[in-house]
Design goal:
heterodimer; A: 5-stranded antiparallel β-sheet; about 5% helix; B: alpha+beta; SH3 type barrels; about 50% strand; globular; ribonucleoprotein (chain B)
């Protein structure tokens, strides 16, 4: 009776569980500095260090010389394999 | 020892429990705002959202679907849509 269970496992999956479910799937990763990666997630860890294969990197460059006219240019780069340091990751989302 | 002393953050736990599965607003340091149904959150403030929408200047600029947001980017999380 006196024994109360401490630290009962939550039924709700942790946020990182979502990333685990993305392994071997194509994901979009939003990075700091207006960059995005789209590629197949091979591996990740708790820092969100990521290994991505067959990656397309998109860099968004905002030209706002005129204050009203804000145009966005993009530069795309392809990589066979990337190791991404977790601290630059903002968001990870599976592609539908 | 009651559960409150064992886990001083259990009050927060109650709050999170109360907003789980509801629509929340997540504001990042970058100024970006995301709305979505809160799946879960952990001690780093890592957040997973369902039906995540990215809002800029009051307009939905992107539908992410499911999304994981890394906690270090999060400024605050607001309950309610």
């Amino acid at each position: 009776m006196a024994d109360v269970e401490v630290g009962v496992a939550t039924e709700v999956p942790e946020p990182l569980e979502l990333v685990r479910l993305c392994v071997d799937e194509v994901v979009i990763v939003k990075l700091r500095g207006d960059r995005e990666l789209k590629g197949r997630l091979h591996a990740y860890d708790s820092h969100l260090n990521l290994v991505l294969g067959d990656v397309e990197e998109t860099i968004y460059i905002v030209d706002d010389e005129d204050e009203d006219v804000e145009s966005v240019r993009t530069i795309k780069k392809q990589s066979e394999m990337l190791f991404v340091r977790g601290d630059s990751v903002v968001l990870v989302s599976p592609t539908r | 020892m009651d559960s409150e002393t064992q886990n001083p953050r259990s009050g927060m736990g109650d709050f999170i429990e109360s907003i789980r599965d509801t629509t929340v607003m997540v504001k990042l340091y970058s100024g970006a705002v995301y709305y979505g149904e809160l799946q879960n959150i952990d001690g780093y403030m890592n957040v997973s959202l369902n039906e995540c929408r990215e809002i800029r200047n009051g307009k939905v600029v992107r539908n992410w679907g499911e999304a994981f947001i890394r906690g270090n980017n999060v400024s605050y999380i607001g309950a309610g849509s």
